[in-house]
Amino acid sequence: MSESEQAGGQLLVTKDCAAALELMQAELSKALNELAQESSGRNLQAGPERIQHFPSRLDLAFWYVRPTIKRIFHWLFQSEERSNFTYSITDENKDYLAAFCAVITGQASHKMRDYIDELCRDSELREHVLRQRSVLAQQHIPIDPHFDFGRRLGWYTLVRALKPKIVIETGVAQGLGSLVLTSALMRNAQEGHPGYYFGTELDRNAGFLFSGKYAEFGKIFYGDSIESLKKLDAVIDLFINDSDHSAQYEQQEYEVISSKLSKRAVVLADNAHVTSKLCDFARSTGREFLYFQERPKDHWYPGAGIGAAFTKL
Ligand SMILES: C[S@@+](CC[C@H](N)C(=O)[O-])C[C@H]1O[C@@H](n2cnc3c(N)ncnc32)[C@H](O)[C@@H]1O
Q: 135 and 180: one domain?
């Protein structure tokens, strides 16, 4: 709104910047007040020996925390998103994701990395999302113009590598995952390996991005995911759990699909950084389990994880 100025050696920030800083200060104070309340009556004592090292040890710990605080500040100005963030992941993390997919598919890591790069270069898909952004803004679920796919790159890679006939994603939201998955199915079909996508979603207004030629490769069932999965009459090759993230619901989804999985089906959990339900499912059904930790690039969000239950080739 107004300009930054440097006057008489004093740094004057814009009004908007000052407002953001003030709000951040309030959040930090809130956290410290909560801490003080939690600590009261707990008789925490450290003794002079330990207290003398508090400043240097705090400095060390805050070396890790400060960059996140700065990213939160910049995100306030650079992004409009309120949920389901669309950050990119670091280049190193893409390599780790390729290695993760290589173990699951039994294929070469460099081939998996090629699939990741294939999606990153897909300008048609990006343009499709940008064209739909105005609709999403009207729905109050904005997506940033510099959006990216995050760990969905792994979903894309597994579809490209495994050539599944049936792919399920529970929880569609705006439909970015639907697009990523159907764009992989579209390329597979062009190479002679057709496949189909089913999404399940509770919110009837969700799935706005899933349109045009992408929608020819799949369909969304609106309603409760468990009910839709019960009705599904298909053999599932790739299943992605990303709907209700309570542990109990996640487990129920695995129980419902268990008998519908193909012999070499891969089951992914988008919630594996929160619950161990997929790991339990893998153990109880004699499958392998592997975990990938996402590392967002230039974003405060610490990243989610992909859990994978699969049968070794
Ligand atoms: C994390 S978002 C999904 C993100 C999406 N997979 C993507 O790639 O962007 C979770 C979605 O699950 C939906 N959901 C929550 N509970 C559900 C349920 N019981 N059945 C179906 N969908 C549900 C929510 O409405 C929300 O849109």
A: yes
Is the CB of 180 within 6 Å of ligand 1? no
Ligand 1 atom at minimal distance to the Cα of residue 200: 21
- Rounded to whole angstroms, how far apart are CA atoms 83 and 136? 13
Give residue 9's pLDDT.
66
Give 9-62 pLDDT, tens digit per residue.
677 789 999 999 999 999 999 999 999 999 998 999 999 999 999 999 999 999
Full-prediction pTM beyond 0.70? yes
Q: Report the phi/psi class of residue 262: left, alpha or beta, with left for phi > 0 and alpha for psi in -120 to 50.
A: beta
Q: Which atom of ligand 1 is nearest to the CA of 225?
A: 20
Mutate to test the pocket of ligand 1, among 87, 168, 172 (most ligand atoms within 8 A of CB): 172
Q: Which domain holds residue 26?
A: 9-36+47-76
Strands 305-310, 261-269: parallel, antiparallel or unpaired by DSSP?
A: antiparallel
- Per-residue pLDDT of 66-94, as tens digits, reads 999 999 999 999 999 999 999 999 999 99
Indicate which CATH number applies to the domain containing 128: 3.40.50.150
Contacts of 93 (CB under 8 A, 6+ apart): 294, 295, 297
Strands 288-293 vs 305-310: parallel, antiparallel or unpaired = antiparallel
Distance from residue 243's CA to the centre of ligand 1 (Å): 4
112 in ligand 1 pocket by Cβ < 6 Å? no
- Which residue's alpha carbon is nearest to atom 15 within ligand 1? 244
Total domains in the fold of the chain: 2
Q: Name residues whose C-beta falls within 8 Å of residue 77's C-beta, 6 or more positions apart in sequence.
A: 16, 20
For residue 178, give the ligand 1 atom closest to its CA. Answer: 8
